Amino acid sequence: MTIALGGFKGYIPSASAFIFEVDGMQIGTFGAVSGLELNVETVSYREGGANGFEHQFPGRITWPHLVLRRGMTNSDVLFDWVQETAGPGFEKNGNKLTSRTGALTAVDSVGSPLRTWSFSRVIAVRWKGPQFDSSSADSLEEELEIAHDGFTSKTALRN
After folding, report:
1. Disulfide-capable partner of 148 in 31, 119, 135, 158 (CB 3.0 to 4.6 Å)?
2. Which domain holds residue 127?
3. 74: domain CATH number?
């Protein structure tokens, strides 16, 4: 008997990489992502005469920063994007922020997309370069932190 798991036809998907894009331009492929979550604050209301509980109503949604980790790539697209939203590039644009959209796609071991998350108003807020140690066999890795105003999600259904 095959159990349907949300359109994945009986198997639990495993992502081997994550592709991040800004306005349709690929920034890079990452091996690890954290911060993909949302939190809904609740507002309590105590109704007179109902002493056994408090009503809970949804409040503000908060979205933590995304943190993407990967091996180094040979593309300058990441830094071109950062220059548009910070420093001299931001000043050159009259200190006006251009709203950018981001997309994070989880892909399986053969490169097929599993799910895509689309982010509104993405801004790169931190980049950490590789740690250099010629006596280490560790691969060089970069880290990118991104602020955003929320996301939607879409699953890539398999046939």
Report:
1. 119
2. 17-155
3. 2.30.110
91 backbone dihedrals φ, ψ, rounded to 5°: -65, -40
Block residue for tokens 């809904």: 40
Give Cβ neighbours of residue 151 (< 8 Å, ≥ 6 apart).
36, 38, 63, 117, 118, 119, 120
Q: Is 2 among the domain residues?
A: no
Nearest to 36 by CA among 119, 126, 140: 119
Q: List, as one string, the DSSP characters of 68-107.
A: EEEE--S--HHHHHHHHHSHHHHHHTTTPPPP-EEEEEEE
Flag whether 12 is in a domain.
Answer: no
Q: Which residues of the chain have pLDDT under 50?
A: 1-3, 159
Number of domains in the chain: 1
- 128-150 pLDDT, tens digit each: 988 888 888 888 888 999 999 99
What pTM value is reported for the model?
Answer: 0.80
